[in-house]
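Notes on consecutive records. When two proteins share a document, each keeps its own sequence and its own token line. Never mix them. Below: protein one.
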Amino acid sequence: MFALSRPDHAALISHGRTWTWAEIRREMHRRAARLVTLGMPEHGTVFACEPVTGDLVLTFFACCRAGLSLLYLSPLLTEAEIAPLLDRAAPVWVLTATGEPHPFAPSLPASPLDLPGGATASACAEAARRSASGNADATMSIQTTSGTTQGATKLVQMPHRMVTWRDGARAWWETPEQVYWIHRPLMFAVRGICEMLFTGGTVVLSDAPTAAAMESEMEQYRVTVFWGVPAHVQMLVAQKSPPPAGVRLAIIRTSAAPLSPVLRDGAVARYGARMIEEYASTEGGSMTTAPLSGVPVGSIGRPYPGIHLRIVDMDADDSNTEEVPPDKVGRVLLRSPGMMTGYVGGPDAAGGWLPTGDLASRDRDGFLFLHGREALRINVRGHTIAPEEIEAVLEAHPGVAAAIVTGIPGRYGIVLRAAIVPHGTAPSGRELRVWCRARLAGYKVPRRWSVRKEDFPRSALGKVLRSRV
């Protein structure tokens, strides 16, 4: 559509290269024909394990047109992690930056990610036939997740409708005038990138190594919407010098983890931008949006039109879908037009309620408030504790950049341990205990403390790997 209405408009910028909408359309058609010419069967799975670049995005579009599914695995994964996932997904081909076989899948035929070469008329016609014969429930991509059970890595089957339905349910900030900026996307966020591109605006994929370089690029490309995780916001807010005069952010959109009040306030003070906390998941797609009129402080907004979201009793049977009263915390169940079709090798998810693993409440106006992950709850002497609450209190301390709270065995049962990443000189354990006691019930105050010199280990999506803290 945009290739016809605004063909010369910059659609995608990556590593110094710009693709217009007309160029994206031509490349998608050419690459789809190349996939057909290589002999990739309709409904087959193609594997890629490369950093996120413009070439990866364009070849993903080509896979969609050629009736293929893209299995994307983060290049941060090890061979021990990748091998069982390949066994389950059974890809027929691998695309690498060089065209050489992937070292973890040497038996798979390989081609360069940018699929060089011409396109024959017959191959173009076959790709067009496959595209026309597709359906919204067909798998467009396969991505990893820990799943709602927080167990072993799962492979999520993401249908085409996960991104197409949002074209008719755009948020107020998703306009063709926006320039969206994504910092160091180590995981191919198919849904998020497609949602931004489908607005007709410009998407910038950045690998800027420092916060200063990030702001320099935002000034260069006149970025209006920043999309990242709280760790990226932390990098920006921690700077001592003011931002360049040409930085004009209107929206800061975060996802993957809760944004602490300290970071939220720091980002607003630095840029004067509107903060949008997105609630979404790999399995469930986009879930909530912030109305133009604003949301209460700490809320993640209301569900998108068409999203059915229920908050049910935490102690009830899994089959119970009766909602709890307003302001009561419960488990979040989801039914959405953007839901996955299921896990590879697992049952079909269509038509049912998806347990998200999150805890939330809803006020009388329908605004949602997250209360952490159900699986992270810690039981201390009969008290059920949400570590996220304690972490937010610690991160409000001026000497704490980040905090993680876990439960560890003590002499008389489980005790709370807090690991912190300091701002400059680390505050003492005594100072932090006094800080927490003024703001938390006594049983929520950590008994053990540790200080890290570097940031916590994180996943490709920026989430802290708590098991390694």
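Protein two starts on the next line and is unrelated to protein one.
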Amino acid sequence: MKIKTIEQSFTVNYRYQLYFTSGLFSIDNPLFLDIITSFKTGSAVKLLFVLDKGMLVHHPGLEKAIAAYCHQHPSALDYTGCMVVPGGEEVKNNGTHVDSVLEAINSNRICRHSFVIAIGGGAVIDMAGYAAAIAHRGVKLIRIPTTVLSQNDAAVGVKNSINIFGKKNFLGTFAPPYAIINDSEFLKTLEQRDWMAGVAEAIKVALIQDAKFFGYIREHTRQLRYRDLETMQYVIHRCAEMHMQHIAQGGDPFESGSSRPLDFGHWAAHKLEFMTGYQMRHGEAVARGISLDLMYAKLLKLINEEAFEEIIGVMEQLGFDLQIPVKGKKEKALLLEGIREFREHLGGQLTITLIKGIGKKHDVHEIDKDLMLEAIHALNNRVKLKVL
């Protein structure tokens, strides 16, 4: 039997930009208008805003400011309204929130030449981005992240997702946003937990890519902990820059392979979030996950005691609680299930990123579970002794 084949390859070029500003929806700030008109001129572009309820508590005038800004430019900005959704991981755990955004996209006739603008923390941006990506096979998205973690990491990439089956980010898409806008005004009203949580992601990317950047964080722990905005803005800028460079130059932006170095410390972090009912912030879980993998790397003799203590010391000075909150065999076994789920999420060969020095990533393809249990015990004992 003769088989005929038609084969064709093609390349799609993606481009998106990250902007930094302050007071985005002040009437005299032209940035948002310029971004929309860079997409299309000649007729007004429909805009649907999805707002984080938790963020609005601290910025109660934002809805009015958005409406006033859009009404100031009616020939370019067609404001269809704002919808408010819960903040935090709750918004990703319940599919009804995706449905509500899809309903708003439909009822407001948001098309592929319109924009969904997501304003909030990383979870809201993930959820709204997922809805935008599946509506009409892709509605344009602008992300306006409002936390440190979303400004330096979560909103910077090309992924959108929600949680299901007790697994983080099980449903999702790869869909680059049209633009990301970091507004420093949102950082000023963050709770301390949300101010600090994002620094864990900065430590992560520094440890696997840039020893000099880790040195900057080490030298500025006090400024970061006590909310120096200029220092934090530098950390956000550098972290986001490295994140975007990895996506563009890493050779695998849509993760078709089995290596995700930007998920250093995340196999445990994702499981810890789930095990605590998402009461633990993502960045808090990442700090613990990094510390656990560092202890494991030390037991493997990939890193020495000096490097381990230097890194852990920085995280402690920043105020992170590094205790792994698992007790007894059952909870420890449940945490280690995160390794299997991580491999399943990646597909193919298990690849866990560790480090063999500050700024030097090192991938391993298997985890010695007995040694990882020893790492949990050793890390928790160290933290206890430090407290005593």
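For the record: The CA atoms of residues 50 and 83 lie 5 Å apart.
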